[in-house]
Amino acid sequence: MNHTENLSYFVAHFVDELSKSGVTDVVISPGSRSTPLALMFAEHPKMKHWVNLDERSASFFALGMAKEINKPVVLLCTSGTAAANYLPAIVEAYYSRVPLIVVTADRPHELRDVGAPQAIDQVKMYGDYVKWFHEMALPEIENNMLHYVRSIASRAVSTAEQDNAGPVHLNVPLREPLIPNFFLPNLWGKSESSAPFFTHFSGKKELSERQLEGIVSHIKDKAKGLIVCGPQMDMEFREAIFKLAMKWNVPVLADPLSQLRAGKNEKGLLIEAYDTILKSSDIRAKLKPDYIIRFGAMPVSKPYLFFVKENRDIPHYVVESTEGYREPALLNTQYVYADPHAFCLACAEVNLENDAEFTNRWIELNNTVKRKWKEDSEVLTEGHAVTTIQKCLGDNHILYVGNSMPIRDVDTFFMGTSAEVKIIGNRGANGIDGIVSSAIGAAAHGKKVTLLIGDLSFYHDMNGLLAAKQCNIDLTIVLINNNGGGIFSFLPQAQEPKHFEVLFGTPLDLSFQKIAHLYEGYYARIESWSHFEDELEKAYQSNGIKMLEIVTNRDENVSWHRELWQDVEKMLLRIVGNH
């Protein structure tokens, strides 16, 4: 066979095997060397292809999509620095455990390290941020090479999604000519079988009866327990964790990204306001637990971090489904490697009961904060923007939250809701880059998505809006514009006024209305809370890009937050003082 036939069959079997292994979506950054792969993905009848011109935007777009559909998404780019632009999203995917299959086209070996254009060293270029790297063979179909290429594709999918999910990297060297022949007979291989090349059977880890008894024996005489759930994406987990909580009468401190604050389940033991409650060191001292069991990653809340550091002497259990060491407080931790559902249900069979006074104190404090947040505010504040968004969200809606201040305001002000809402953020590496593209990726399959983001983070990724425009993706953007990096106003750097604005405040002084119009989106500057609510309702009834800008003042925002926290602290101290 000639080169074109070898190339065509080799690449076709690779793409077809990805499809048979469960992949439905590929995000393509156009380029020359990736031509046969891009054309074959576009030609495959079961593969949905998305074109995103900017590689950094494309990679975060794929990340957001993979989070929403909860399965691997393929990323494809040409050789050279195009592949380097994928790195930030790959880092985020690695730390947030999101499955991606990164396919980078490359020059053939004879064109490497000889000064050929667009040729860089792509071998293991993402280092330890991928679960698996493989340099693929040059395309040919003799000597079982079609079985080889299918085995690599199938292995890539299973590696990306099994255990702790994450990105894998396949580097594909290709020689010219690069145009495949779609008219070859039996291009996709045998059509009678839809099974993947490798079939995987993977069971869930469960503790033995003796192991479970060992844990219970350490806490059976400890009457002040806490269950904590940090960021995680299993929407079904809430049933198991609340069953355990109700059986033991244990408060559940739920991060906004835990998926526990939403849904129609019983929320009597849900503590959403723990971040506010724990801001006071005096109150933290009154709430010392006897043990903590944590599921998911470390919560967003910094006061919670202070809380656990101040209680190093108590038993800390971190439950991980397979493996991992997510304990940034550096506590003397007992790791439980078991399926979280099975662990909760097994523990619920054990007769333990929390101290009622301890549990009721948490509930009373939580309800006090929630009542405070319901008080009306005439001033447009960043915190009350969250409460208004929550009021307007319906079932099957996604709230995608930017880092820095937005996620902290969601942590503070987003209380429990019966609406089936998914809250997503990029909290693996906590960067402010790529958030717009991630939200657009999450919206690509038709879910209603509201993006809550600050102006600086929006600026970092505003070119991501092109994909929303070109693919007719519906996205509502709530832009909190405090003209710079608002979170730095809360940090010690704010006490250095000489250099603060240039180095940390970083005002943009941009017209975001013009940016919205550049991408043919709708724009409204919010003037009041009633106006905001009306605009949100209109946005959810329309299609395309909608930008709702709330202009705030950084200094006023800091003062408002601190005064509010001081008022709440006084209220909560009166409660804990009565116990």
UniProtKB/TrEMBL annotation:
<dbReference type="GO" id="GO:0070204">
    <property type="term" value="F:2-succinyl-5-enolpyruvyl-6-hydroxy-3-cyclohexene-1-carboxylic-acid synthase activity"/>
</dbReference>
<keyword id="KW-0460">Magnesium</keyword>
<comment type="similarity">
    <text>Belongs to the TPP enzyme family. MenD subfamily.</text>
</comment>
<dbReference type="InterPro" id="IPR029061">
    <property type="entry name" value="THDP-binding"/>
</dbReference>
<dbReference type="GO" id="GO:0030145">
    <property type="term" value="F:manganese ion binding"/>
</dbReference>
<dbReference type="InterPro" id="IPR004433">
    <property type="entry name" value="MenaQ_synth_MenD"/>
</dbReference>
<comment type="pathway">
    <text>Quinol/quinone metabolism; menaquinone biosynthesis.</text>
</comment>
<dbReference type="Pfam" id="PF02776">
    <property type="entry name" value="TPP_enzyme_N"/>
</dbReference>
<protein>
    <recommendedName>
        <fullName>2-succinyl-5-enolpyruvyl-6-hydroxy-3-cyclohexene-1-carboxylate synthase</fullName>
        <ecNumber>2.2.1.9</ecNumber>
    </recommendedName>
</protein>
<feature type="domain" description="Menaquinone biosynthesis protein MenD middle">
    <location>
        <begin position="222"/>
        <end position="401"/>
    </location>
</feature>
<feature type="domain" description="Thiamine pyrophosphate enzyme TPP-binding">
    <location>
        <begin position="436"/>
        <end position="550"/>
    </location>
</feature>
<dbReference type="GO" id="GO:0030976">
    <property type="term" value="F:thiamine pyrophosphate binding"/>
</dbReference>
<dbReference type="Pfam" id="PF02775">
    <property type="entry name" value="TPP_enzyme_C"/>
</dbReference>
<dbReference type="InterPro" id="IPR011766">
    <property type="entry name" value="TPP_enzyme_TPP-bd"/>
</dbReference>
<keyword id="KW-0808">Transferase</keyword>
<dbReference type="InterPro" id="IPR012001">
    <property type="entry name" value="Thiamin_PyroP_enz_TPP-bd_dom"/>
</dbReference>
<keyword id="KW-0474">Menaquinone biosynthesis</keyword>
<comment type="pathway">
    <text>Quinol/quinone metabolism; 1,4-dihydroxy-2-naphthoate biosynthesis; 1,4-dihydroxy-2-naphthoate from chorismate: step 2/7.</text>
</comment>
<dbReference type="GO" id="GO:0009234">
    <property type="term" value="P:menaquinone biosynthetic process"/>
</dbReference>
<keyword id="KW-0479">Metal-binding</keyword>
<keyword id="KW-0786">Thiamine pyrophosphate</keyword>
<dbReference type="InterPro" id="IPR032264">
    <property type="entry name" value="MenD_middle"/>
</dbReference>
<keyword id="KW-0464">Manganese</keyword>
<comment type="subunit">
    <text>Homodimer.</text>
</comment>
<comment type="function">
    <text>Catalyzes the thiamine diphosphate-dependent decarboxylation of 2-oxoglutarate and the subsequent addition of the resulting succinic semialdehyde-thiamine pyrophosphate anion to isochorismate to yield 2-succinyl-5-enolpyruvyl-6-hydroxy-3-cyclohexene-1-carboxylate (SEPHCHC).</text>
</comment>
<dbReference type="GO" id="GO:0000287">
    <property type="term" value="F:magnesium ion binding"/>
</dbReference>
<feature type="domain" description="Thiamine pyrophosphate enzyme N-terminal TPP-binding">
    <location>
        <begin position="13"/>
        <end position="125"/>
    </location>
</feature>
<dbReference type="Pfam" id="PF16582">
    <property type="entry name" value="TPP_enzyme_M_2"/>
</dbReference>
